[in-house]
Write a structure and sequence with these properties.
450 residues, Pyruvate Kinase, Chain: A, domain 1, eight-stranded parallel β-barrel, elongated, 16 helices, M1 Pyruvate Kinase, Domain 3, six-stranded antiparallel sheet, 3 domains
Length: 450
């Protein structure tokens, strides 16, 4: 059973019942809806579509955030020239807040994915004087990045707030917040969406990378969003940043996703490049819970083949990876029982771990301990089962449960057998709670399938 999960982005190539089911059959377990390309009404329709086509899969709503784009007509920036542009020209909204939104003299302003570079030499109200360091032709609509600026005023616009309301009302499993700068950004979103939705921070700004430990401490998950991260930080530093994000998530027991251009060539080709294979394998070695496809499945010519290729790469990489239990090392008390269960499973080469859980929390703890085998999570909640689809190695089952732990375990084993997850002679480690069915795991049992 493959441990690393696959997130597939929906778009024109796959936004249909058949398209989504094809991705599920190919190996995707989570579907990303990119609010940068969806209106709020379209977001609601897309959520409904995924629920119809893949009722057991998780939905990740990727909130657009303050993505800046050049709003003026196209201009030619000449090396060494001094140009005057307003904040609104650069896509920076001021509104009633006024001021420069944190932009200061000496700050770099990058355009067109970092191909063009300017430096702020003077600020007069909302007008900036920019010295062109690396020029070129700048088209309207190209991206603008502020790598040196901690933008004031929060990361949510009116559309973001509307999209979050839809996500909460329709009960999606995950929301991912773009251009996070500090833990406060995540705390603010959690107050809006409540406790039943997982809140992920997209790490794509140097300010977020500097605070990665603090951000992980208040997040349910993080995403290494390598696109903008590779613009706002030196591109050669991205691999180290990716590993740092994964390690911080592992140590704090939060979920992690590696994203951007993982199999980009398969947007138009039937096979990945060797470099892309190495990239996906590297993400598996870093310990990410999931790897993500963007344009490859949204607009690509071979979406199903891309998911299958990614699954093959992950499975091959997992055979050569044994992850340390970073979470238990950093949290010995919180992980006491789950760490013991994962260590036992590894020692006896267990076929799988069976987690009997109400809320899914103990299954997530088990996944954080990075066992060498898959985790079958038996939970009575359909919503919790969908949510667990993002966790490394966790395969959820919806299983009715009463207060008797013995009968609950027996029912879970029976259901796993019916799903052909067990064969005669298989040894499994069972992790559950006898003291209180809604508390942390406190019991470990061994079961040998007759």
């Amino acid at each position: 059973m493959r441990l690393t999960k696959i997130v597939a982005t929906l778009g024109p190539a796959t936004s249909s019942v058949d398209g989504i089911r094809g991705l599920v059959n190919a190996g995707a377990s989570v579907f990303r809806l990119n609010c940068s390309h969806l209106s709020t009404d379209e977001l609601a329709k897309s959520i409904t579509l995924v629920r119809e086509a893949a009722p057991t899969s998780a939905i990740l709503v990727d909130i657009q955030g303050p993505k800046l784009r050049f709003a003026q007509d196209s201009i030619d920036l000449v090396d060494g020239a001094l140009v005057s542009l307003s904040l609104s020209d650069l896509g920076i909204e001021t509104g009633a807040r006024g001021g420069s939104r944190g932009v200061a003299v000496g700050h770099r302003i990058l355009m067109d994915d970092g191909r063009l570079e300017t430096v702020v030499e003077d600020i007069d109200g909302e007008t900036l004087s920019l010295r062109v360091v690396r020029g070129g032709f700048l088209k309207k609509g190209k991206g603008v990045n502020l790598p040196d600026t901690e933008v004031s005023g929060g990361v949510l616009g009116d559309k973001d707030l509307a999209d979050l309301r839809v996500a909460r009302k329709m009960g999606v499993e995950i929301v991912a917040i773009s251009f996070v700068q500090s833990p406060a950004d995540i705390v603010a979103v959690r107050e809006l969406v409540g406790e039943n939705i997982l809140v992920f921070a997209k790490i794509e700004r140097p300010q977020a990378l500097e605070r990665i430990d603090e951000i992980c401490a208040v997040s349910d998950g993080v995403m290494a969003a390598r696109g903008d991260l590779g613009v706002e930080t030196p591109f050669e530093s991205v691999p180290a940043a990716q590993s740092r994000i994964a390690l911080s998530a592992l140590q704090r027991g939060v979920i992690s996703i590696c994203a951007t251009e993982m199999l980009e060539s398969m947007t138009t080709a039937t096979r990945p490049t060797r470099a892309e294979v190495a990239d996906v394998s590297g993400a598996v070695r870093d310990g990410f819970d999931a790897v993500m496809l963007s344009g490859e499945t949204a607009v690509g010519a071979y979406p199903n083949e891309t998911v299958m290729a990614m699954a093959r790469i992950c499975e091959a990489a997992e055979k050569r990876v044994s992850m340390p239990n970073y979470y238990a090392d950093a949290n010995p008390e919180a992980a006491a029982v789950t760490a013991a269960a994962t260590a036992l499973a590894k020692r006896i080469s267990a076929h799988l771990i069976l987690s009997v859980t109400f809320t899914g929390f103990s299954a997530r703890l088990l996944a954080s301990c990075r066992p060498s085998c898959a985790i079958v999570a038996a939970t009575p909640g359909v919503d919790k089962a969908r949510q667990l689809n993002i966790c490394r190695g966790v395969y959820p089952m919806v299983v009715a449960r009463d207060g008797n732990i013995t009968s609950s375990i027996a029912t879970a084993v029976q259901d796993a057998r019916a799903l052909h997850l067990l064969a005669s002679g298989d040894t499994i480690v069972v992790c559950a709670s006898r003291l209180n069915p809604r508390s942390d795991a406190d019991t470990i049992l061994l079961h040998i399938e007759p």
